[in-house]
Amino acid sequence: MARSDFFEKVYAVVALIPEGKVTSYGAIAKAIGAAKSSRTVGYAMNACVKLDRDLPAHRVVNRNGVLTGKHHFPGQNTMQRLLEEEGLEIENDQIINFESHFWMPPLSKET
DNA sequence: GACTTGACAATCC
DNA sequence: AGGATTGCCAAGT
User: Fold this and answer.
1) In a domain, A108, yes or no
2) A60-61 and A90-91: which strand pairing?
3) Closest-approach nucleotide to residue A5, Cα vs C1'
4) Most exposed: A55, A63, A91, A93, by fewest CB within 10 Å?
């Protein structure tokens, strides 16, 4: 396997998030078989920005539907703006109707 | 080489 | 019900 299976899986799942949908770190972590590693998922996202990945990290929020990582984007309001552009509703850094926009990633453990 | 920090979440008291 | 602690993995200092 790769040097960091974890990151690869995280990137894979995040890249699969459909437009106008959002998911949580815990959901991703669970999907890749590491429900307790939700923290590392967030870390992977931070790394993805530096790696200039194509991952819609703005579609990833914490389990409360709060844009916890919006500070890590190029602009402090970039994350929220992107979500609004996709038809989501954000208020006070929180996604309105979060569960309605929630997207459960496919549990692709491995192949 | 060891300790601390970090875009979270679940559990314990 | 609410606050504090632990678990997990990787990277930075």
Assistant:
1) no
2) unpaired
3) C9
4) A91
Interatomic separation, CA of residue A37 and C1' of nucleotide C12, rounded (Å):
19
Q: In this predicted model, what pLDDT tens digit does every residue of A65-85 receive, in sequence order?
A: 999 999 999 888 999 999 999
> The domain containing residue A85 runs over which residues?
3-101
A6 touches strand B (CB under 7 A): no
Maximum Cα–Cα distance across chain A: 41
CATH number for the domain that contains residue A83: 1.10.10.10
The answer to whether position A31 is within a domain reads yes
Tokens of A49: 């920005």
Does the predicted model carry a pTM greater than 0.85?
A: yes
Provide the number of structural domains found in chain A: 1
